[in-house]
Amino acid sequence: MKIYFHLSLEGFSNCYVVTNPETKTALIIDPGKITKEILEQIEIDRYSLEAVLITHNHESHLRGLSTIRKIYKPQIFAADYEVAGNDTQVLKGDGIIKAAGLTVGHMSVPGHTPDSMVYKIGKVLFTGDALSASMLGTTNNAYAEKMLLSNVHNKILTQHDDTIIMPGHGPPSSVAAEKLFNLSIALRPVTGL
Amino acid sequence: MFSITSCAHPSCQKSALSYYDADKDSLLTHEYCYEHSPKAAEITNSLYEYIASHDKIVGMNASGISFANMDLSGKRFYGCKFLYCTFMNIHSEQLRVRMSMFDFSMFSDCNLLQSNMQFTSFAGSTFSHVLFTNSDLVHNNFCGITAYQSSFDDSDLYNSRFIRAVLNNTSLRNCNIKKTAFYEITQDNVSFKLSNTREALFSPEAAE
């Protein structure tokens, strides 16, 4: 498995291309914008784009979906019926799917949006806007914040400490780092200064 | 890149180390993590050899290994894992790093001048006498770092995060800190002189 990171300048969202060199298949997570570089990555190595995973229904994370649909015929995985088309599998709750020859775990973490979904491939979590480096996703009200915090505690922080977090915005992180430094999760650490 | 293979030791979920097979000239995955490897010294030497003989290093997991007295000038690291590593007396110019993890590592007496590091995580790491002067450090995770007598001068730190960092006698002079988050940092004798502090984020409330 190889993961390639692309920054979408519209909305500053992170898009990931995950390839499986053994089967020559690929999937895209959160296509904020389909750029020449993304297409070249797929085409030059002759990958077959088999799936698109959407973490939540926000424009900055799925604007490129219409471009993808014009070029390829991948299966779309999302948890919101608004994103859905004939090619979409609407995910509910937690489970495991097969995409591009990879085993992909999906976990529902509503709070930032009702359809927020976290995907796990190998030891990497694609958290969308539910969790980014040291920050919890934004929410509209206290109830949503409480629900998101509970979901993050139960589903993300219970993963192994070395699990890498690839968020929808900002730099990468790890579960161990979030437990210690996240503003909404960790208590203020005692420093020697 | 980011090996899926876990350590073969019962109940250990850490990622298995990489090792260099000189005969095949390729980077392969070992069975164990550094802690449980019966051949840790041999694996370590093979990774030193790989780094010395290759300029482009992709998908290496060297977590737990110590690196000392090395010159990494011009090396390029992509999708590598260096969790809980120690870097002592490392010199480099124009080091290039993409999407790599250095969480909870220790950097001591390192000159990493004119580095280009993007989408990389140093969360929880300690920097003592480390110079990043004149570097591109865009979109990086420096949350929870502890920095002593270190310099980020003349660097581009755009969209990086220093949340809950402890900065002691550290300078960020003449830096681009647009959208750089410094929430809940502890600072002692830190200089932001000539940096665009108005565009940086010092409290979550101000950002909203």
Largest sheet of chain B: 8 strands, parallel
Q: SS-based structural class of chain A? A: alpha/beta
In the CATH hierarchy, what is the superfamily of chain A?
Ribonuclease Z/Hydroxyacylglutathione hydrolase-like
CATH architecture of chain A: 4-Layer Sandwich
* Assembly category: heterodimer
Residues in helix, % of chain A:
10-25%
> What is the helix fraction of residues of chain B, given as a range?
under 10%
Strand content of chain B: 25-35%
Cα end-to-end separation of chain B: 36 Å
Largest sheet of chain A: 6 strands, mixed
The end-to-end distance of chain A, rounded to whole angstroms, is 43 Å
Low-confidence runs of chain B (pLDDT<50, min 5 residues)? none
In DSSP terms, counting alpha (H) and pi (I) runs of 4 or more, how many helices of chain B?
2
**Name of the CATH class of chain A:** Alpha Beta
- In one word, what is the shape of chain A? globular
The CATH topology assignment of chain A is: Metallo-beta-lactamase, Chain A
Rg calc of chain A: 16 Å
- DSSP strand count of chain A: 14
Shape of chain B: elongated
> What is the number of beta strands of chain B?
14
Considering residues with a beta carbon less than 8 A from a beta carbon on another chain, report the largest interface and each chain's count.
A-B, 30 and 41 residues
Description:
The complex is a heterodimer of chains A (193) and B (208). With 193 residues, chain A is of the alpha/beta class. Chain A has one domain (2-186): Metallo-beta-lactamase, Chain A (4-Layer Sandwich). Chain A has helices at 36-44, 59-62, 65-71, 142-156, 175-181; strands at residues 2-8, 13-20, 25-29, 48-53, 75-78, 88-90, 95-99, 102-108, 117-121, 124-128, 131-132, 135-136, 164-167, 173-174. In chain A, the strands form 3 sheets. In chain A, strands 1-2-3-4-5-6 form a 6-stranded mixed sheet, covered by helices on one side. In chain A, strands 7-8-9-10-13-14 form a 6-stranded mixed sheet. In chain A, a hairpin with a 5-residue loop joins strand 13 (164-167) and strand 14 (173-174). The mean pLDDT of chain A is 91. By secondary structure, chain B is mostly beta strands. Chain B is 9% helix and 25% strand. In chain B, the strands form 3 sheets. In chain B, strands 4, 6, 7, 9, 11, 12, 13 and 14 form an 8-stranded parallel sheet that branches. The interface between A and B is large, with 30 and 41 residues.
